Amino acid sequence: MTVGLPAMGGSAIGGGGWGAMAETDAARSLARMVAGDRLPQALLLTGPAKVGKAQLAMSLAQALNCLERGSASGEVGGDPCGECRACRRIAEGRYADVETIAPGGLCRVSDHDHAKLATIEIGICQIRRLEMLAAMNPYEGRRRVLVIDPADMLRDDASDALLKTLEEPPAGVTLVLVTDSPARLSETVRSRCRRIEVTPLPRAVLSQRLAELDAISAEDAETLSRMAHGCAGLALAAIGDGEPIEQRRAQIADLRRLSAAGVAERLAFAESLVGRRNDAAPARLALESWREWWRDLLRVRLGVEQGITHEFLRAELEMDAPRYQPDEIVAFLLELRRTEELLRISVGVLITLEALMLAMPRPTVARQPVRSAP
Ligand SMILES: [Zn+2]
Ligand SMILES: [Zn+2]
């Protein structure tokens, strides 16, 4: 989470202690289980990247330790207040009984410096630390909450070591595994957790929540919630990164220019997308925006008005849509998907991007613009 943003779990973005996630089924069912003291000791939170899973895990830790736990009806319930000392300290990451185990984090071996080693996996030494913490009574709260995020980055030996704790979690401890790729977890780990699916927020809900932030106009909130497809974490991260809407505008301007450009310019652009260390990260970001743009073009071309991401570039969409054949757009969308898959395994970043550039369809001169549905 970027510094300087209001915490989603606080009261800053509405919905009480569950923050923006309050209106999700996942938050509601967790609150019910907390209120009824029926929360399983091992949970698996799944859902798209940046949908708000980590936030939900923190709110759950708050709900379990909140000093003023309430519910909508005013009785003792399963909702964190978001404001008491426990809730605040958990949100700030300073609560002794709540810890997230992540790649590069703390472990049990004193001379390991995972941050320096730039570890991308969660090692067995970190699971040993988790075992040690799990065995101790909560220090200041009611329950110790240990979050593993992302759980799909557990190394095989770490995953095996975790099984013992998952099978018989010590009393007083709740384990929360977080992942957007549950298929990459071992079947045995998955089978020992209660799975909770976290779904994106309805666009209107996210838009309203974002509009409650001081720095954001209602119009930008609407645009951002479309760009984030209901993923609150994605929208907030985009805001934290600077000017997400301006960035997107620039990416789409590049794309429209390239589509009409010649081979040399296209290839030069492919080269400019390759990261300094020959990595695919900058390209992946651009490609995501491109895929959404071409999807929008297809929708406008076919007169489908639902789910348009680039509503704020409506004039450009309507100008471009008639210049491409639907089957050309579909073919290029498939090409984009294929490229994204190749980049994920990071094989030959430049050549992969060059192939994509050459596959991009060229606009024909439009005879008449597509009219949008009323
Ligand atoms: Zn509280
Ligand atoms: Zn270690």
Description:
There is one protein chain. The protein is of the alpha/beta class and 374 residues long. The chain folds into 2 domains: 11-197, 3-Layer(aba) Sandwich (Rossmann fold); 243-359, Zinc Finger, Delta Prime, domain 3 (Up-down Bundle), CATH 1.20.272. The chain has 16 helices and 5 strands. The chain has helices at residues 25-35, 53-65, 85-91, 114-117, 124-135, 156-167, 187-191, 203-211, 218-227, 232-240, 244-259, 263-273, 281-302, 314-320, 326-344, 349-359; strands at residues 42-46, 98-101, 144-148, 173-179, 194-197. It has a 5-stranded parallel β-sheet, sandwiched between helices. Helix 6 (156-167) links the parallel strand 3 and strand 4. Helix 2 (53-65) packs antiparallel against helix 3 and helix 8 (203-211) packs across helix 9. The longest helix has 22 residues, at 281-302. Bound molecules: zinc ion (2 copies). One zinc ion binds next to helix 3.
